[in-house]
Each structure stands twice: as structure tokens, then as C-alpha cells.
Amino acid sequence: MKKEVNSSGKSRNQTSKEKETKHNKKNISKVFLTALAIVSILGFLEIISLGFFEIDISFHAEALLMIIIGVALIAEAQLKKIRSIKNGLTHNNFSRLITIIFGLIAIVAGTFSFPGLRFENNVFLAVKSLLALIAIVIIIIQTWIVK
User: Fold this and answer.
1) Which pLDDT value is given to residue 77?
2) Can you give the C-alpha Rg of the chain in angstroms?
3) Overall average pLDDT of the 26-45 stretch
4) Residue 49 main-chain phi, psi, to 5 deg
């Protein structure tokens, strides 16, 4: 049996394992890309406002960042699919439920981070730090591991 070779030097006949790994990879969601773009723009605006205009919007940016992360986590969890919890708790709907809970916590943390409502407490700061770490892990997974 002859194998055809394309211009990159790879054969056209793929093994079943190669086909299987290509099939199992998921694409990056549009919600994640949108949230990442908004977070990047927000960070850029924060730098520009402080650098050029000497206006410190870091507290506003921090609050908006948490709210954006929360909304993105809830949207990523796909609320319509959480209804399957009525049929019993599975790995899939459990992870969706946890994602929604983290999203709600992020929205609450963002709301209480606005300068007018600023709430300073060690536990509250720890929750915000944990949410930031979770967001970083999600960004790493979505950017370099997922197709």
C-alpha cells in the first residue's frame, strides 16, 4: 500500500490515533475570546489613563475585570445545559454548576470593588485573589492547550 506524501512531508493516511486526537480537541469559545479582548482593552485603557492623563482608574478597572470574568464564567457554563442536573449529578453538570458559582462570586466581588462600595477585608481580598488565579488558569488552558 502506497502512502501519498503532501508538501509538508506528512502522509495523507492518518492513523486512527491521530484522527482521534484531532476529534477530541475543542475549539476556543467565542465567549472566552470576547472576554479576553475586553480584559485586554480594559488593561490598556488603565495604562493609558494613568500614563497620559494621570487619572488613576485602577479601582474601577479591578471591579470591571471581576465582573467581566464573572459574566464570562457564567456564559461559558452554558446555563441551558445545567437543567440536566434534574437527571442526576454527573461530571459534566457538576463542573458547569461550579463554574456558575465561581462566576456569581466574581460578579459579587466586582460589585463590592467599585470605589463607592469598596469593601476591604482579608477574606474578601483572598476570594478576589483566588478568582484571579482561576482566571489565569483558564486563560492558559484556553490559549495553549485547547485548539
Assistant:
1) 82
2) 21
3) 81
4) -65, -35
Chain centre to alpha carbon of residue 19 = 28
The verdict on residue 20 lying in a domain is no
The answer to whether residue 3 is domain-embedded is: no
Inter-residue contact 112 to 118 (CB < 8 Å): yes
> How many Å separate Cα 95 from the centre of its chain?
14
* Domain of residue 85, residue span: 30-145
Which helix or strand (DSSP H or E) is residue 7 part of? none
Do the domain assignments include residue 25?
no
How would you class 112 by CB atoms within 10 Å of its CB: exposed for 0-12, middle for 13-18, buried for 19 or more? middle
Cell of 36: 479576553
Report pTM: 0.70
User: What pLDDT sits at residue 62?
Assistant: 87
Q: Which of 61, 105, 101, 108 is nearest to 82 (CA)?
A: 101
Element (H, E) at 57: none
Query: Considering its fold, how many domains does the chain have in total?
Result: 1
**Residue labelled with grid coordinates 456558575:** 100
What distance in Å separates the CA atoms of residue 101 and residue 58, rounded to the nearest whole number? 26
Q: Is-contact 65 110, C-beta < 8 A?
A: yes
Structure confidence at residue 6 (pLDDT): 54
